[in-house]
Structures are given as structure tokens and as C-alpha cells.
Design goal:
The chain has a 26-stranded antiparallel beta barrel. Strands 1, 2, 3, 4, 5, 6, 7, 8, 9, 10, 11 and 12 form a twelve-stranded antiparallel beta sheet that branches. By secondary structure, it is mainly beta. The protein has a domain of 182 residues.
Length: 703
């Protein structure tokens, strides 16, 4: 029977190909049985119509030779090579016109989005639907749905345009718009993005409505107008681009203006907050203009603003360099290198976020560097390298400097006792010359500090690995001795320099004799998810009164979902813990916890003081497949007050989710008296229709 059916299908296929033109793109009709009456062919049982990568499956079909029309009826299913699926009660296929009409149309794709329509038609890859409903929830009583009078769906771009649109929550209509357009695939299209909103006690109601402009495949623009009802209003704009296969970047600028009452209430230094940001990276900057055999790169990370509120008022920040609690860095780098040498040019600019003028902040504009990579010197045991740098340290008010430094290390390395012990001996010749300037004066004959020094270092180390039945143990032991010798100084002696110059321009050329000891253990189990990492480092200064300076220990343990990290720095000289940082975390399927305590003590020759003592707690509890609770709390033991807290809930059904978050934030601001802060209690909300996105503040994403 199978062989008979196969022969019948083959004969019928040949017959229909001839009847439909037999050319490329022709239709092929398969069925259990065929009957011909005049110009009409009737197909019955397991009907399959194949055309242009699409299969039409049904119970029965008719083919009109005269009109070149095929009608497939009875539980029709349409399958395409794009992964989508269409169901209908009846499909009329006009071969010459490449035109298809449907009755009782149902469409679904890989994202589980479904569309139902009373009738639909397909012309050249486009669907037109009438009296339709769309959702990603269950077809029976969906939680949300969109009903519309007419829609046009492009199956190539997967973009849908709806007219006469009504949004329903359950069976209740909650929103109407005469037009709505969106993509069913991750393609860039111009249009409004999901809005963000929230409420804060000080700033009032917050609303931001982004607009996205897809300029071309290689660039786009996003506009972010925002209003804070108690504070003011502003606009941010972001331009993103790709200018070559190996380079691209982002440019952002923005402006926000505060109300007079808000400025007066919080004693702010600036009423307007504005800035400019640039991120750009290229791994082939000069392209074919480089010397043969060389590679190059360019990197720019620029963040300039009149005060820190320019950043605080953004909903989402660009990815800038890590900033300290006080300084924000901008950097531009260019480098050219091969396997033997490296050339670099860089500039760094710092903004002191606590300063009104930023005039005394030292900038590096620019710095030049040449580096010769480690190279053999007549023997595989002997290597040398070379490094030279020129720095121009500039600031508007205060002492400036032009500094040149160079170093020439010579290193001998060998292993002894059957590779159980490694010996490294290094002699490094180091030279520097720093010219101090006031304003724009440049007198290289005076007011400069020059020094020539030789640094000695010898190290013994051993790297041992042993495998046991239960796991692998690695141990590293190292001991080194280092000492510096001052060979020469210029007319200005190191003892004649004030401490500010030494600190600002890193003029320490001579280091005390030091013995360093290091022990590092690492364990990984074979039969259980357990890892342990332990490091201890100690420094001993034989010429100092305190001798032992600092002891540092680090311990990292992990077992399944549990982990513990601890770092302890103990100042033997000052008999105090200079730094203590402990983190315990558990990341299970139902419950997650992270608890961190950080304590830091700064010291000098006369005193030591507590500079940081904080605790941070983050919690996550998954109550069910749909409900997840979040929470966080930070406390400053030094200030004896909470830094911030947050609490929220995520409710997630397969086709929609929402996040509700309550939080208190402390953000830095620039006041007329210098650095200050704002305490803001706020509530934020986000609602998403899967997979379209939604509206809200994005608090869950930030968390």
C-alpha cells in the first residue's frame, strides 16, 4: 500500500507541475486520492500543498486549471520555514497572483504570540487581518488581549500595524488608540519606547517618555524628555553608531533645569545641570596607515558635566570608568604595538564632584609612553625590558609639572632542585626628572627634581600541585627581598620637597628594604561542589622601627549555592585592622541572600581614624513560580544611620509581569557649601506585556 501511494504521489506531482507551469516557484499538490472533472481536480485525504517554502495541510482541496486557483479546506494548517504557524478553516490560493485568503485565521510564532481573525489575506509576504484579536496569553480567557479592526503584518520584517485598537485586561476595555505599530522580532524601528515613571517625596512624580529613531542600520538616536513635578524638567539625547566592522560608540548630551523653590530648599549650587558624554572604541584605528606588522587601538571614555546631578537625573547611565566617591575620570587612549614594542598616547581628565570650580584638580594632558617587551639577552635565563614615559600634569590653579620617567629592568630567572624551586634576580635602573611650573612658566633650568636609583630584588618561589582521590591541591610559596639605592640627585634634594609635591606627583624614588612573604593555597574537590582559596601576604621592613608593616589575608570558600569571601588587612605598625571585608551569600532556587560588611581605617604617622564602616544586605525570596520578593538595606555604622533601603515584589505570569518597588536613596549633590546629599523616598512601578515590553520605572532591572 505504501509503495502504491508513493507511486500515486509521484505521478500526481508530475501532473500538477505540468498543469501549473512546471517552472521554478511552481506549486505541488499531494493527497491520498485525486479526481478530475473537466477543468477541476479534486483532492481528498491528507492534502499537502507546497509552494515557495510553505506547506498548506488540509482535509480536501480543489484545483481550477482555468483560473489557476487552489482551495484547501478543513482544518487547514500552514507551516513555513520561518518557524511560524497558521491555522484556518479555508485557504484560497491564486497561483499566478501569489495571493492567499483565509477564513477563521489563526497565527502563532516562536514567541507564543497568537493572532486570530475572522478573515485574512496574504499577498507577497504580507498579511491583512480583519476583526482580530492578539495576545501571548492562553486563548481561553486571556489575561490581556488587543482587539483591532484591521491589521497589516509583514512576515519578513515581523512588524505589525494595527488600526482601531482596543486593549483589554481580561474582558474589561482599558485603553483605545486609532493606530499602533510594533515589531514581533528584535528589529530596530522608529517610535515611542516604554515610558518610565515613579514618585519621590522630594522630587514628586517622575515621568520619562523615550523616543527611538532608527536612522540607518549603522546608527540610531534616542530622545529622553523627562519631568519631575516638584523639581523641574529636562531632555537627554543619545546617538549610537557603528562606523566600521571594528569600531563604534555612543554620544550623549543632556540638560535639566530645577525650579527655584527646589534649588532654594536644598541649597543647590546650580539651577541647571548639563553635560556631554562620549564612548568610542576601535581595534583598528589607523587601518592601512599603520606600519607593517603593527596593531593599534583607540579608546575614548569622556564624561564632562557641571555637577554630579547631571548623572543622578538620568534614568540609565552610560558605561563610564569606575568613579571613586569623589573623582570622575575621563580618558582618551591611543596605542600602537607589535610583538616587540608598544607606543602609547593618553590623556586623563578628572572632575572633583565636591568642588565648585575644579581648578585645583591635577589633570594628565597628555602622557606619552614607550615600552620594550621582555627580550632575551644572550641567554634564555636573562631578559631585559625598557619603559619610558613623559607626563604633562596640568591644573588651572596651583603647581604644575612636566615629568619624565624611565626604567630598565634586567632579570635573571631559573629553576633549581628539579623545578621545585624558582629563583628570580632583578636589577632595575630607574630615572626621573620632574619640572615644577607656576601658571605658564617653563624654566627647565630651575625648580625641578631629578634622581637616579637602582632597585634590587631577589625572589624564591615554589609552585606545587598534587592530586588526591577527592580533589586537587595547588600551593604557591614565595619570599622576596627588595632594596633601593639612590645613585644621584639633581640640584634639588628629596628632603627639600614638601609633602604635597611628593604625594601629588609620586616622587618617591627610594623604597625601604623589604622582605615579602606570600603563601597561596587552592583546593577543588572532584566529588562535590567545593572550592577553597586562601592567600596570606606579609611585609617585613628590617630598617624600620615597626619592622612588620601589614599582614593581609584573603579567604574564599564556595559550596554549591553557598559562598564566603573574607579579606583582613592588619596594620602591625599601628596595631589595628586597617581593612576588613566579609561577604556571605546564598543563591538558591527559592531563596537568595547576600550580606557584606566593610570596615576601613586610614592611618598616618600621628593618628589613625575610621573612614568606612558599612553593612549591605540583599534578599530574594521566590514564593512561587509567579511571585518573587526583593529587599535590600544598607547601614553606615560610622554615621549611625541607614544609607538606603529597598523592598519590592515581582509578579510574573508567562504572558505579563509587573514589579512594584519602594526605596530610599541617598544621592550626592553639589551645594553652595560644597558636597551634600539628597534623601529621597520613592515608589516605582513597571508593567510588561511579554514579549512587547511595557511601562514603568525599571526598578527591577536596576535591582
Amino acid at each position: 500500500m505504501i509503495k502504491v501511494l508513493g507511486i500515486l504521489l509521484l505521478v500526481t506531482t508530475v501532473f500538477l507541475k505540468a498543469a501549473m507551469g512546471g517552472s521554478e516557484g511552481s506549486a505541488e499538490l499531494y493527497a491520498d486520492s485525486f479526481e478530475s472533472r473537466g477543468d477541476t481536480v479534486y483532492a481528498r485525504g491528507h492534502v499537502v500543498l507546497a509552494y515557495d517554502g510553505t506547506l498548506f495541510l488540509g482535509d480536501r482541496a480543489t484545483y481550477d486549471r482555468q483560473a489557476n486557483r487552489i482551495v484547501v479546506e478543513g482544518h487547514v494548517e500552514v507551516l513555513s520555514n520561518r518557524g511560524s504557524k497558521v491555522l484556518a478553516d479555508k485557504v484560497v490560493f491564486e497561483v499566478d497572483k501569489n495571493h492567499v485568503t483565509f477564513s477563521d485565521f489563526y497565527h502563532t510564532d516562536r514567541d507564543d504570540i497568537w493572532v486570530y481573525a475572522d478573515d485574512a489575506e496574504k499577498q507577497d509576504g504580507n498579511y491583512t487581518l480583519r476583526n482580530s484579536v492578539l495576545s501571548s496569553c492562553s486563548m481561553e480567557d486571556p489575561d490581556w488581549s488587543v482587539k483591532f479592526g484591521e491589521a497589516v503584518y509583514d512576515s519578513e520584517s515581523k512588524y505589525m500595524r494595527l488600526h482601531d485598537v482596543k486593549f483589554y485586561a481580561g474582558k474589561t476595555p482599558v485603553f483605545y488608540t486609532p493606530y499602533l505599530g510594533f515589531s514581533l522580532e528584535r528589529q530596530r524601528h522608529s517610535g515611542l519606547l516604554s515610558p518610565h515613571f515613579g514618585y519621590g517625596k522630594d522630587e514628586g512624580f517622575y515621568y520619562e517618555q523615550p523616543y527611538f529613531w532608527a536612522i540607518s542600520p549603522s546608527m540610531d538616536m534616542e530622545f529622553n524628555p523627562a519631568i519631575r513635578t516638584n523639581r523641574g524638567y529636562g531632555l537627554y539625547g543619545t546617538f549610537r553608531f557603528v562606523d566600521s566592522p571594528w569600531s563604534g560608540g555612543e554620544i550623549r548630551t543632556g540638560y535639566f533645569r530645577d525650579k527655584n523653590a527646589f534649588v532654594s530648599q536644598h541649597n543647590l549650587e546650580n539651577k541647571s545641570h548639563y553635560g556631554f558624554e562620549l564612548l568610542y572604541e576601535s581595534s583598528n584605528f589607523l587601518r592601512s596607515w599603520k606600519p607593517e606588522g603593527y596593531r593599534d587601538g583607540f579608546y575614548a571614555n569622556i564624561n564632562l558635566f557641571n555637577d554630579i546631578d547631571y548623572e543622578n537625573l538620568q534614568y540609565s547611565n552610560l558605561n563610564h570608568l569606575e568613579e571613586t566617591s569623589r573623582f570622575q575620570e575621563s580618558r582618551v587612549n591611543y596605542f600602537l604595538y607589535n610583538d616587540e614594542q608598544y607606543f602609547g598616547l593618553r590623556a586623563r581628565y578628572f572632575i572633583d564632584t565636591t568642588s565648585k570650580e575644579n581648578n585645583e584638580t591635577i589633570q594628565e594632558l597628555p602622557a606619552l609612553q614607550y615600552h620594550k617587551f621582555s627580550t632575551k639577552l644572550g641567554s634564555e635565563f636573562l631578559h631585559y625590558s625598557f619603559d619610558a614615559q613623559l607626563h604633562n600634569y596640568w591644573r588651572q590653579d596651583g603647581t604644575r609639572a612636566l615629568q619624565g620617567v624611565a626604567s630598565l629592568p634586567l632579570e635573571f630567572h631559573t629553576s633549581v632542585f628539579g623545578d621545585y624551586l624558582n629563583l628570580t634576580v632583578q636589577e632595575e635602573l630607574s630615572a626621573s626628572d620632574t619640572k615644577f611650573m607656576e601658571e605658564n612658566s617653563l624654566n627647565l633650568g630651575q625648580d625641578h627634581y631629578a634622581a637616579l636609583a637602582l632597585h634590587h630584588n631577589i625572589e624564591l618561589s615554589s609552585d606545587l600541585v598534587r592530586s588526591y582521590e577527592s580533589g586537587l591541591h595547588t600551593m604557591l610559596l614565595a619570599a622576596s627581598y627588595s632594596k633601593s639605592t639612590l645613585l644621584a640627585e639633581g640640584d634639588l634634594s628629596y628632603n627639600d620637597l614638601n609633602s604635597d609635591l611628593i604625594r601629588d606627583y609620586d616622587l618617591d624614588m627610594i623604597y625601604d628594604a623589604r622582605l615579602s612573604f606570600k603563601m597561596h593555597h587552592f583546593w577543588e574537590s572532584y566529588d562535590r561542589p567545593f572550592k577553597a582559596d586562601y592567600l596570606i601576604v606579609a611585609d617585613y621592613y628590617p630598617d624600620n622601627d615597626s619592622r612588620w608593616n601589614e599582614l593581609r589575608q584573603e579567604l574564599h570558600l564556595s559550596y554549591g549555592a553557598y559562598s564566603l569571601s573574607s579579606r583582613m588587612d592588619y596594620s602591625i605598625r599601628y596595631h589595628t585592622l586597617s581593612q576588613l571585608a566579609n561577604t556571605f551569600s546564598y543563591n538558591g532556587e527559592t531563596f537568595g541572600l547576600s550580606l557584606t560588611h566593610t570596615r576601613k581605617v586610614d592611618s598616618d604617622a600621628t593618628r589613625h581614624w575610621l573612614s568606612q564602616n558599612e553593612m549591605d544586605l540583599d534578599l530574594r525570596y521566590k514564593q512561587s513560580e509567579r511571585v518573587t520578593w526583593y529587599g535590600g538595606y544598607s547601614y553606615d555604622f560610622k554615621e549611625k544611620s541607614s544609607k538606603n533601603w529597598k523592598a519590592g515584589i515581582l509578579y510574573d505570569k508567562k504572558c505579563w509581569n509587573m514589579t512594584l518597588m519602594f526605596k530610599q536613596e541617598i544621592t550626592p549633590v553639589l551645594t553652595k557649601s560644597g558636597r551634600g546629599s539628597l534623601h529621597n523616598n520613592s515608589v516605582s512601578f513597571q508593567f510588561n506585556l511579554v514579549p512587547f515590553g511595557g511601562i514603568g520605572s525599571g526598578s527591577h532591572e536596576k535591582l
